[in-house]
Design a protein that fits this description.
The chain has 162 residues and is α+β, with helices and mostly antiparallel strands. The chain contains four helices and six strands; from the N terminus they run H-H-H-E-E-E-E-H-E-E. The longest helix has 27 residues.
């Protein structure tokens, strides 16, 4: 079944999508700084050529942690009606043997808790950012604290540097 699915996929668009990702990967690899992005484009090209039967493994590292923090903060800021009341503060610094990350953002009121965790306002396959952050911190032996007050939400993380 994988073979048939991949064959149909390849014929009806997978070829062009894979070639497109390969071209983008080559363009990124022109510069030394772009090589890591280019390598990711080549991975996507392989997936575009034949996606059926492939398994995608979620890495869950520092980039995912930072992107989830910033994405949640920006979405909360945009829910604040008055633009002049919106803010986002990010502080990242080494503290002794750990990396300290603090993200504070404006929020429309206090965030609600459900079962000891902050409840998501999203539906479907969204709303797992805080849970992913918790899991990544746990994976690396870190600590997470969050606080919500009227008009502001703060996430603080401590991650071991070594």
């Amino acid at each position: 079944m994988k073979l048939l699915g991949n064959l149909l996929w390849f014929v009806f668009g997978g070829l062009w999508m894979g070639l497109g990702w390969s071209l983008v990967g080559l363009l990124w690899c022109i510069t030394i700084v772009g090589i890591p992005v280019g390598m990711q484009c080549f991975k996507l090209a392989g997936l575009a050529f034949s996606p059926f039967g492939k398994v995608i493994v979620y890495g869950g590292g520092a980039p995912s942690l930072l992107m989830n923090l910033l994405d949640n903060a920006m979405e909360a800021c945009l829910r604040v009606e008055r633009e002049e009341e919106r803010f986002l503060r990010v502080y990242i610094a080494p503290k002794k043997e750990q990396l300290y990350i603090c993200v504070t953002n404006s929020s429309p009121g206090r965030e609600k808790r459900l079962g000891g965790r902050f409840a998501t306002r999203k539906s479907g396959f969204h709303g797992f950012g805080l849970l992913r952050i918790d899991r990544i911190c746990e994976k690396y032996g870190g600590l997470v604290t969050r606080a919500s007050e009227e008009g502001a939400f703060t996430s603080e993380l401590l991650l071991p540097l070594a």
